[in-house]
Structure to design on (226 residues):
């Protein structure tokens, strides 16, 4: 036997053996597929169940107005229909209250909602926060019912040259000084209805300034109106 033949003989399988292997592969294919599926299921079962993961809570209703405040704010919006000028919301978050107000406004009324995306209760980045709000308000913005303004509220106040607002809803910062500044701006530009959120024990500064200005004319949940 030549060296080449020896070498070939040591690695190449006889023809009968190769045919037998092929037949075995074909015959055993369904069994192997089943085995893979079972193995896959076993692998999946070794992963922790979704419920055992520590999911960060993403409830879009956190930090928005309480359910009992929704009919109240919608009543204020309906009251504002008699005035010209926009409805201005300071502090959009995701736009949840914006959408509640949009449902009650007159078709020709515009809502301007202002946010700097500097705070949210879910710990997401400002970019993610703004992306979600953009999506939430997409229809209302595209149809001209809402103007979404990304700006610090004090800059917005300084730049605002529009008509006297029919209504303002103040819901960005809830300390005494900021709520006072927000109300003073609303009074300066002649807002017809001045309202805001969080007249509650958690925000004593809001209670203090609203009380100093005569107290809430009415409360709906923790939504106040002067
Ligand atoms: C309580 S959330 C607003 C909730 C919203 N009005 C609702 O009812 O669904 C407060 C929002 O105010 C924004 N904000 C806080 N300080 C601000 C500032 N100086 N200028 C603009 N937006 C501000 C935050 O980014 C946050 O989205």
């Amino acid at each position: 036997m030549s060296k080449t033949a020896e070498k070939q003989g040591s690695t190449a399988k006889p023809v009968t053996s190769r045919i037998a292997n092929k037949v075995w592969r074909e015959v055993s294919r369904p069994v192997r597929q089943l085995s893979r599926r079972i193995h896959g299921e076993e692998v999946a079962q070794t992963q922790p169940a979704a419920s055992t993961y520590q999911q960060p809570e993403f409830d879009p209703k956190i930090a928005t107005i309480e359910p009992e405040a929704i009919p109240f704010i919608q009543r204020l919006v309906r009251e504002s229909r008699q005035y010209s000028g926009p409805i201005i919301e300071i502090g959009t978050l995701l736009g949840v209250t914006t959408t509640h107000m949009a449902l009650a406004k007159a078709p020709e009324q515009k809502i301007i909602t202002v946010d700097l995306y500097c705070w949210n209760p879910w710990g997401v980045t400002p970019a993610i926060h703004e992306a979600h709000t953009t999506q939430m308000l997409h229809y209302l913005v595209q149809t001209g019912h809402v103007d979404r303004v990304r700006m610090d509220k004090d800059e917005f106040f300084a730049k605002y040259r529009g008509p006297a607002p029919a209504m303002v809803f103040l819901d960005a910062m809830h300390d005494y000084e900021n709520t006072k500044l927000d109300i003073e701006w609303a009074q300066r530009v002649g807002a017809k209805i001045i309202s805001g959120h969080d007249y509650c024990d958690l925000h004593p500064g809001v209670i203090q300034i609203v009380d100093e200005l005569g107290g809430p004319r009415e409360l709906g949940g923790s939504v106040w109106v002067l």
